[in-house]
Amino acid sequence: MNKLIIFTCLCLSFSGYSQDIFGKWKTIDDQTGEAKSIVEIYKKDRKVFGKIIEIFDETKSGYPCIKCKGDDYNKPVLGLDIIKNMNQDGNYYNGGTVVDPQNGKVYKLRLAVTDKDQLQVRGYVGFFFSTQYWIRVE
After folding, report:
1. Residue 96 and residue 88 in contact, taking contact as beta carbons nearer than 8 Å
2. I need a surface site. Which of 24, 60, 71, 127 has the fewest CB within 10 A?
3. Euclidean distance between CA atoms 33 and 46, whole angstroms
4. Which residues contact 79 (CB under 8 A, 6 or more apart)?
């Protein structure tokens, strides 16, 4: 009986990670390892979005997204929704996109909370993907 209780508690604690995607995350440059910005992930109209709410390099905080396409063209990067239209699918969030404001490229996206303080951000182009790990900000 005690083993069943311990197993149930462990399962509930791990399943909580997948539910706890909302909040603020520090983005890390995968080439330099430096922190770049804070992205806030939130829910709007049953979809999940993420917008840049802070940029650490003050010289870039006023830049417009000149390489973005469509409605995002020339919008300020600070405040820009870079993650759009994600849906929860079990332990993952997918079905949406992420834009890289530096080059304007849009990628299919999968998000997963790997533990309570780390978000796996995986962008796809066809069969190829790149993964970053963002850190929760309290």
Report:
1. no
2. 127
3. 33
4. 51, 52, 53
